[in-house]
């Protein structure tokens, strides 16, 4: 039985894929946020010259 064209088979696919996509989006946003602090930590940061490759990607 389908409600507005949405079948149970679609739900079994869409719910896990939707959760995966939301999780990937949040993880990408956290990575983007953390790159603002790259090489600025007293413990892990070093003296990085302008144009030099960062210590972690």
Question: How would you characterize the overall build of this protein?
Answer:
Helices cover 47% and strands 0% of the residues. It contains one helix and no strands. The protein is rod-shaped.
Secondary structure topology:
Elements: H1 8-34
Element string (H = helix, E = strand): H
Low-confidence stretches: none
Radius of gyration from the alpha-carbon trace, in angstroms: 21 Å
Give the CA-CA distance, first to last residue.
Answer: 49 Å
Mean pLDDT: 82
Q: How many runs of DSSP E, i.e. beta strands?
A: 0
Report the structural category: mainly alpha
Strand content: under 5%
The major sheet is characterized as: none
Cα shape: rod-shaped
Q: Count the helices. How many?
A: 1
Portion in helices: 40-55%
InterPro entries: NDUB1 (IPR012575)
Pfam families: NADH_oxidored
């Amino acid at each position: 039985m389908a409600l507005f064209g949405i079948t149970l088979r679609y739900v079994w696919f869409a719910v896990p894929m939707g959760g995966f996509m939301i999780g990937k989006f949040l993880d990408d946003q956290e990575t983007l946020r953390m790159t603002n602090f790259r090489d600025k930590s007293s413990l892990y940061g070093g003296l990085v010259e302008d144009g030099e490759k960062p210590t972690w990607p």
